[in-house]
Amino acid sequence: MIVIIDSKIANLGSVVAAFRHLGEAVTISDDPDIVASAEGLVLPGVGAFADGMESLQRLGLDGPIRSAAAKGKPILGICLGMQLLAEESEEFGNHKGLGLIPGRVVRLAPKSGERVPNIGWCDVYPAGDSSIFCDITAGTAFYFVHSYHFLCNNRENSVAVIDFGHEPVTVAVERGNIFGVQFHPEKSQDAGLGVLEAFVTYVKKESCHAS
Q1: What is the total count of domains within the chain?
Q2: CB–CB of 195/133 below 8 Å?
């Protein structure tokens, strides 16, 4: 069972529709017990980092998410959900994250002609070995809406980048069973569905190994 976490910080309709388009039955829940029992977790999110963490903590979801990660259950963060996987963020002050991937979230630094927030389609380039980007061709476009990005402490955790500012910007992270994408796969047509399908495949594989 894949659970889409209802943290009250995202519009879940398009995410659910994307999984159902793939033929996958998913459960939406803000119940810590259901989150804890899931085979795989999806954490969507939009808005500010501090609001996202406050919501997870208020609902009692931060502990079950960390526990699921420690047990090896696959977790996919989307947009703000990816940023919340970090140790901390500088957005509107310094705020602690879930700490599942070492690194911090910082504001985009555009070069001349670029704007923040970065909204629209950007070409994405795989930057390392990845379980969910294995079938993505370099230069495939995905849809973005963001003002901040993830700085990984370990470059091996950065598995996809875009060309923004004066150096490549990480837009997908991976560390063992923990995954995150800055773009919106549910709004990125076939390419986005391909990433979600790869995550589903990974969940099913890990579930079989655990049973």
Answers
A1: 1
A2: yes
The pLDDT value recorded for residue 129 is 82
- The whole-number pLDDT of residue 210 equals 65
> Can you tell me the distance from the alpha carbon of 5 to that of 95, in angstroms, rounded to the nearest whole number?
21
**pLDDT higher than 70, residue 166:** yes
* pLDDT over 70 percentage in the chain: 99
- pLDDT (tens digit per residue) in 192-210: 999 999 999 999 987 776 6
pTM for the whole structure: 0.96
pLDDT bin (cut points 50, 70, 90) of residue 9 is confident
Structural domain of 158: 2-210
Known catalytic residues? Answer: 79, 184, 186
Instruction: Find residue 167's DSSP bridge partners.
Output: 164
CB atoms within 10 A of CB 49: 23
CATH number reported for the structural domain that contains residue 138 in this entry: 3.40.50.880
Closest CA to 78 of 136, 137, 9: 9
Q: At residue 195, what is the residue type?
A: V
Contact residues for 67 (Cβ-Cβ < 8 A; gap 6+): 36
**The token pair that represents 44 in the structure block:** 């969507």
84 Rama class: left (phi>0) / alpha (psi -120 to 50) / beta: alpha
